Amino acid sequence: MEFGNRIIEYKEDILHDLSELIAIRSVSCEDKTETERALDYILGRAKEMGFAVKKTGRVAGHAEYGSGEEIAAILAHVDVVPAGDGWGTEPFILTEKDGRLYGRGVVDDKGPAIIALYCLKALKDSGIMPKRKIRVIFGAAEEIGMNDMETYFSEEEAPTMAFTPDSDYGICVCEKGIMQLEISSAMHDGTILTEFQSGGAVNAVPAKAYALVDCTESEDNRLRRFADAKPGEYDFIYTMDGLIIFAKGRAAHASVPKQGLNSAAHLIRILADNFGESVLGSLCGFIDNAIGTETDGASMGIACSDNESGALTLNLGRVDIGENISRALIDIRYPVSADSDMIFDKIKKRAEAEGLRVKLMNHEPPLSVDSDCPIISILSDAYESIMGVKPELYSTGGGTYARTLSNRGVAFGPAFPGDETRIHDADEGINTENFWKHAQICLQAVKIMSE
Ligand SMILES: [Zn+2]
Q1: What is the distance between the alpha carbons of residues 135 and 143, in angstroms, rounded to a whole number?
Q2: Do the beta carbons of residue 405 and residue 411 sit within 8 Å?
Q3: How distant is the alpha carbon of residue 63 from its chain centre?
């Protein structure tokens, strides 16, 4: 029997603790008190198990077992994104139904966090003395920009090897760079477009957009016929203030914009085709001719790709136009070999030529871990001994804590290909068997890291 199988002995306890953790509504974009409560809960459990526990600020902490010079770590987060609508179960109650475990955070990332803690316990209960310090590092602000790890590593030494079970299997050795920009003008200078609004978060393709247009009834009729033939769904209401247009597309994560249908970009396209860009204002004009409905940055002159990490993606995440506001937020995921300064400069030049300002809101440099890095062979062996086959090495446009590990750590699990986990969506869940498979792989990896 592989050592990793021993995690199954803790099945009941893991589910018990996980249900208590999921019941804490630690939505980091809404409530700092609850995220800290989730952190305190898991650190409290670690203390009860007899581990050395340390809290860093109000957003991070760790449980530690073993001694030695080196630190090997698992990083997991206890904050979650909002539940949203459309669940078939109660989002904050861990529910097992039809062979699946459901609940907000069961996959991302409370389930893996509890499992990681129990891996440490299984090591201790078996009397194994690790050759290095094994840490489970917990964060409570992963979903809002990962400042939690900035705080943590400002006080704590960086691990020599680490993984974060916060993505897919196999091993993610490459994460694209992420740049989020705000493009704005001092005031809205459109003549017929009075309002425009779309989207919430910059890292999502907006599913809904809205525009208020000052036009005549005959223009209105022409627009309706025109929109009918275009991608997306459009509703029109003629009011005293003008024509209101609601556009419906399809949401997707900004790292895979092609999977969505950008309601904002398509609506602007339709308006520009009908009325011309000049009457929509400089911001919409820029959006239409420099971005359009593309997701690869071609018109902006920043399209690029490499074998290691794939192609650059661009997402128009949010547009706000009104009396006192005129801004758009875009999210760019660039390949590891691309030059981020050059990308930024190109966008800046192009926007400034239209009289617009560009502000860099957030920049996370890419991650690229060498395939001969020790953590890769450890995780590969752990996976193979439980699953019988070697894991694939892959690349993602998503972002995980691995970025905070100076190329000495990677994302690894917990989701298996083909198991639709619906993270950040309604009905987040995981196949129960897969959940325990992940637990076994995780313990196996911790065991090898301790040797
Ligand atoms: Zn996560």
Answers
A1: 21
A2: no
A3: 25
Confidence at residue 199, expressed as pLDDT on a 0 to 100 scale: 80
Cα(165) to centroid of ligand 1, in Å? Answer: 8
Copy the structure tokens of residue 346.
């190109």
CB 86 within 8 A of CB 92: no
pLDDT given for residue 278 in this prediction: 86
Question: What is the Å distance from ligand 1's center to 221 Cα?
Answer: 46
The whole-number pLDDT of residue 414 equals: 98
Mean pLDDT of all residues in 29-33: 88
Taking the centre of ligand 1 as the mean of its atom positions, its distance from the CA of residue 105, in whole angstroms, is 8
Question: Could you tell me the distance, in angstroms and rounded to a whole number, from the CA of residue 4 to the centre of ligand 1?
Answer: 23
Q: What's the CA-to-centroid distance between 108 and ligand 1, angstroms?
A: 4
Is the pLDDT at 84 greater than 90? The verdict is: no
Distance 384 CA to ligand 1 centre (A): 24
HEC string of 66-95?
CCCCCEEEEEEECCECCCCCCCCCCCCCCE
66 pLDDT tier (thresholds 50, 70, 90)? very high
> Which token pair is 419?
């198991």
Type of residue at 362: N
Helix H segments across 248-373? 263-275, 282-286, 340-353
CA of 322 relative to ligand 1 center, distance in Å: 34
Which pLDDT score is estimated for 419? 96
Domains of the chain: 3-175+367-449 (3.40.630.10), 178-364 (3.30.70.360)
Q: Which segments of 37-166 are extended strands (E)?
A: 52-56, 60-65, 71-77, 95-97, 100-102, 133-139, 161-164
Tokens describing residue 160? 């020599």
Of the candidates 170, 175, 176, 177, the residue with the CA atom closest to the CA atom of residue 376: 170
Helix-, strand-, coil-residue percentages of the chain, each rounded to 5: 35, 30, 35
CB 336 within 8 A of CB 312: no
Residue identified by tokens 């809904």 is 208
Residue 435 alpha carbon to ligand 1 centre in Å: 16
